[in-house]
Write a structure and sequence with these properties.
2 copies of one chain form a homodimer. With 288 residues, chain A is of the alpha/beta class. Chain A has 2 domains: 177 residues, Rossmann fold (3-Layer(aba) Sandwich), CATH 3.40.50.620; 95 residues, Pantoate-beta-alanine ligase, C-terminal domain (Pantoate--beta-alanine Ligase, Chain: A,domain 2, 2-Layer Sandwich). Chain A is built from 10 helices and 10 strands. In chain A, the strands form 2 sheets. Chain A has a 6-stranded parallel beta sheet, with helices on both faces. The first copy, chain A, has a 3-stranded antiparallel beta sheet with strand order 8-9-10. The longest helix of chain A is centred in the middle third of the chain and has 16 residues. The radius of gyration of chain A is 20 Å and the shape is globular. The model of chain A has no long low-confidence stretch (mean pLDDT 96). Chains A and B meet through α1, β5, α6 and α7 of A and α1, β5, α6 and α7 of B.
Amino acid sequence: MGIDSIIEIIESSQEMQARSEVIRLSGKKIGLFPTLGFLHEGHLELIRQVRKRSDFVVMSLFVNPIQFGPNEDFEKYPRDTEGDLTKAKGKGVDMVFMPPVSEMYPAGFQSVVRVDNITKHLCGRSRPGHFEGVTTVVAKLFNIIKPHMAVFGQKDFQQLAVIRRMVKDLNMDIEIIGVPTIREPDGLAMSSRNKYLNQEERKSALSLKKAMDMASKLAGEGERETKNIITSISELILSYPFTNIDYINICDPDTLEDINLLKEQSLLALAVRVGNTRLIDNCLINIG
Amino acid sequence: MGIDSIIEIIESSQEMQARSEVIRLSGKKIGLFPTLGFLHEGHLELIRQVRKRSDFVVMSLFVNPIQFGPNEDFEKYPRDTEGDLTKAKGKGVDMVFMPPVSEMYPAGFQSVVRVDNITKHLCGRSRPGHFEGVTTVVAKLFNIIKPHMAVFGQKDFQQLAVIRRMVKDLNMDIEIIGVPTIREPDGLAMSSRNKYLNQEERKSALSLKKAMDMASKLAGEGERETKNIITSISELILSYPFTNIDYINICDPDTLEDINLLKEQSLLALAVRVGNTRLIDNCLINIG
């Protein structure tokens, strides 16, 4: 069975734009689920959330080269187009926008959409250029697909914050829906990169969730100094084999700036390498 | 008579967006004429061109602070709101979007739209940050006003090229209409900044047009070396009192990169200070 018999696929931005314009003029609300693919249960929850709020759901399926650094995993990023299309169809996606790289970045391409301050923290520190790549491709997808709303996972907390900021600053008339992280039964956040983990690494990957639980417990017991919390949970993570900490930050959930003392609501964000696989996770810590 | 009795004025981006969405859904084509104001005959020609192609014409009237450098003329940029509204109404503008600066750039604003390569030449060299300010505000205006088409003057040749590039690269579904420069009877390009010129400077301002005429004549006589043409016309300009050359470039009209020999079509672009007033002009030189 050819993949185009599963669901309607559009590869040309101009054709997608023309189709979207007609859908908008018919009065239907377009919902966008943008993804790099290799769909897991976390993604399917995103589709469910946008499906129930909109009349016509478009999934964009595009591994965006400009959001990967030169030493990152663009080439080997896991891909399963046929599986993704089947899952998308099953969850009620109406149309897939799946452009080749040359359609998105033809010769002569030279424009950038950038968010400044909040991209300088957390992943922005360890992945220079990453968020410029994200905001540029998302701005393009918004202009091509013309959605009324778009859905993003809270697992990429900073990405969600950056996109909300871009939408607000540049007056994009699009509702951004953030969806809570879906986890494996033992607590590991769902991620396409979990596929890279071998059996031993998979056990160590749980250290991120254990660290977040410990942080909430310490806060519940009255600890307010973020550096004490970070020290304790760093030790916990490093007690697991194959772990390397990229960053652990406790910050303001709006500005993403580091804080010394817990606020009423604080964001704990982690990026940890387990073997060669970089995992991220985050949680809000509330004190009351 | 209050200015709001002349023509409908909208100050809120959200209200403008909602109004534009209704107009689009009614099937009408929206045309945008974005301006800093102080309208002259050149602007009115832009309105005429967009008026005849669209069903509903919106003029945005906004002196955009982020496209002016710290030592430029933002504060003293000429303003005549009531005159502008009257002229716009007379030429068939249907609605004016006139936001306060705080509406366009509220606290926390931190996003930028940037075009890279072609902004590095000509005015980009002498006005760092200028084009980032232009592309950012134009992207915002496009998202707020949701036009099907927008009109820009060819007098700002580089600005027009930069906006076309942004629209193409970021897949904005908007037709960009470039309109030829309108000139005074003696040849001076219409510009809001001409108002700054005193009587003597006004005479020297004509040196830009004289230089362009000389360049075309030299090319017609067989001169192909751009440096010879630039030397001759620089001498001509400097023979007028109060003139200072900011730049004179002959370049590829697409990339705006300098060229050594004339091509079939080449762009001559000039920026000259006459007294304290910076004037720009340009023309295409065709050789057969």
